[in-house]
Write a structure and sequence with these properties.
Pfam families: NifU. InterPro entries: FSCA_dom_sf, NIF_FeS_clus_asmbl_NifU_C. May be involved in the formation or repair of [Fe-S] clusters present in iron-sulfur proteins. This is Fe-S cluster biogenesis protein NfuA. It is a single chain. This protein has a three-stranded mixed beta sheet with strand order 1-2-3, covered by helices on one side. It has seven helices and three strands; from the N terminus they run αααααββαβα. The longest helix is centred in the N-terminal third of the chain and has 31 residues, at about 25-55. Helix 6 links the parallel strand 2 (about 120-125) and strand 3 (about 155-160). The protein is about 55% helix and about 10% strand. By secondary structure, it is mostly helical. Helix 5 crosses helix 6.
């Protein structure tokens, strides 16, 4: 099994290097560095596009499923806009994967929307009533799962837990003037 590659760490390193290139004072060196990065990205993007075409033409769903299931390859497919699943579909799959770990909170999370700017809106359901730290833990787990499956998502908005339970019996003060008199009781 090949060693797992931390795509987020590598992406961060690439962005840092590009930023350093942008800070170079020599415009010729900066232009050549940018051209080198652009040529490499175009080259491996074209190769990846060809791989997807070959697999699609061969109608080999198993191979395509394995490609999109691999976090490194899936991230590259998203980067080059070659991923066969939409952002919403990948977010739904991520939510399905994280639901078992939300067991204490009944695993209820619902995708409401993915807008064009990449903002995902979710709603929690379950038993997080009054436990803000648990809700924060659940939200963090969901956000990590979504970021891993759909790195193009710019933000995840999580609505508070929907209260879909019947309210408990409420004991209230008696309205003034409705107190029974001793004569009426005896």
């Amino acid at each position: 099994m090949p060693q797992a590659h931390d795509i987020q760490a590598t992406g961060g390193r690439v962005e840092a290097l590009i930023s350093e290139f942008g800070a170079l004072t020599d415009p010729v060196t900066r232009a050549k560095a940018e051209e080198l990065v652009r040529a490499l990205v175009e080259l491996y993007g074209a190769g990846l596009e060809r791989v997807v075409e070959i697999v699609t033409e061969a109608e080999d769903a198993k191979v395509l499923h394995r490609l999109v299931g691999d976090p490194l390859v899936s991230g590259l497919l998203v980067l080059h806009d070659l991923h066969p699943l939409s952002t919403a579909e990948r977010v739904r799959e991520a939510l399905d994967r994280v639901r078992p770990s939300l067991g204490l909170h009944e695993g209820g999370v619902e995708l409401l929307d993915v807008d064009e700017s990449g903002v995902v809106r979710l709603r929690l359901r379950g038993s997080c009533h009054g436990c803000s730290s648990s809700q924060a833990t659940v939200t963090d787990a969901i956000e990590r799962a979504v970021a891993s499956a759909a790195p193009e998502v710019s933000r995840v908005d999580v609505e508070a837990v929907a209260d879909d339970r019947e309210p408990l019996l409420q004991i209230r003060h008696r309205p003034p003037g409705s107190r029974p008199t001793p004569e009426a009781v005896s």
